[in-house]
Design brief:
Elements (H helix, E strand, L loop, with lengths): L5 E7 L3 E5 L18 E4 L6 E8 L2 E4 L2 E15 L5 E11 L2 E9 L8 E8 L3 H9 L3 E2 L3 E3 L5 E3 L8 E4 L3 E4 L2 E8 L7 E3 L10 E3 L4 E5 L11 E5 L9 E3 L4 E8 L5 E4 L2 E4 L37 H13 L1
Antiparallel strand pairs: 1-4, 1-8, 2-3, 3-9, 4-5, 5-6, 6-7, 6-9, 7-8, 10-21, 11-12, 13-14, 15-21, 16-17, 16-20, 18-19, 22-23
Length: 320
């Protein structure tokens, strides 16, 4: 199966230190070295770094550094001064037999210069929570095109319903996953506003959900007509925006294979089953890895995307 890069926004451990408690002055570390009720603070002016990971049967690896594995150590629960709680995953880069680097992946929004009290350490949920964070998903209310042309809200669908796919005609849904996450930080959903890609209504998806665009003219300069592009790479703060605040219900449509389906009239990928997403499957559901599909080769690398005008270019390209 094609290895799909996973992009997560992380803080380096040295940017996150204990400002109050037993380990005062120490940077973030492994779960075994943390002390409950210690207070952490992200350094003033610190910003997240985009970490690109690749998953295979042996686990997670840093893209470009295939020998370095990334261990999901634990999932932390941090309490802000206002009493709200926020989850974050500790990732550890392993080089040889030693820890080369430790990262903190907020599953929401953790801000610099704010004190967060450690109120929970879960060593056995990090894999599932990471899988949920790495899964492409549609928000509640998204209308999916069925095999007969009807458009139905994703939350009204059930296993066995038949959906129209671009690559394989009508296909039955095997399973539907669901997760509720905070709509903050790097996980705030992306909104493809009405008309941005010729859609009649807003389409709301996870940032790494990939859309399939057929260019009648190659305005993007991809060198081919068909492209897959992550929603986060289309954000121009005008026609494609991030929606922050509160919570969002996400749904994943799972088929026997990975397909291109239609959501609010936009071609988009279905849920891709692989080593990094399988732990997010609904309870009692199992699935083998999805086989490689040709459309997976069409993803455009971020370095080639003119983000400020990508949505505009693709809107023109698909209408030319």
């Amino acid at each position: 199966m094609s290895q799909r890069p996973i992009t997560v926004d992380v803080y380096c451990a040295r940017q996150v230190t204990v400002c109050g408690g037993v380990m005062r002055g120490e940077p973030l570390s492994f779960a075994d070295e943390l002390v409950m009720d210690d207070v952490f603070e992200i350094a003033s002016g610190a910003s997240t770094t985009a970490l690109e990971l690749v998953a295979d049967a042996t686990g997670l690896h840093l893209a470009g550094k295939g020998q370095n594995t990334v261990h999901l150590d634990s999932c932390l629960t941090m309490m802000a001064p206002d009493g709200s709680t926020h989850e974050a995953i500790i990732l550890v880069e392993i080089e040889g037999d030693t820890a080369a680097e430790i990262f903190l992946l907020p599953l929401g929004e953790l801000r610099p210069s704010i004190e967060y009290r450690l109120v929970g350490i879960a060593r056995h949920t990090a894999t599932r929570r990471f899988a949920e964070a790495a899964s492409g998903s549609f928000a509640r209310g998204t209308r999916i095109t069925m095999h007969d042309g009807q458009m139905r809200p994703i939350e009204a669908l059930t296993a066995g319903d038949t959906v129209l796919t671009r690559d394989a005609g009508r296909q039955p849904i095997r399973h539907i996953g669901q997760a509720t996450l905070r709509a903050t930080g790097g996980f705030a959903p992306v909104v493809i506003t009405k008309g941005a890609l010729h859609n009649a209504r807003d389409l709301v998806v996870r940032p790494d959900h990939r859309l399939f665009i057929y260019q009648r003219a190659d305005h993007l300069g991809a060198g081919r007509a068909e492209v897959l592009i992550k929603a986060r790479h289309l954000v121009d703060h005008k026609t494609v925006v991030r929606r922050r605040g509160g919570f969002v219900d996400y749904f994943q449509l799972i088929f026997d294979d990975h397909h291109i389906i239609y959501a609010e009239g936009i071609a988009a990928e279905s849920h891709l089953i692989g080593p990094h997403t399988r732990p997010a499957l609904p309870d009692g559901v199992s699935s083998p890895d999805h086989a490689h599909r040709r459309h997976l080769d069409y993803e455009v690398k971020a370095s080639l995307i003119p983000t400020a005008e990508a949505a505009s270019l693709l809107r023109k390209a698909s209408a030319s």
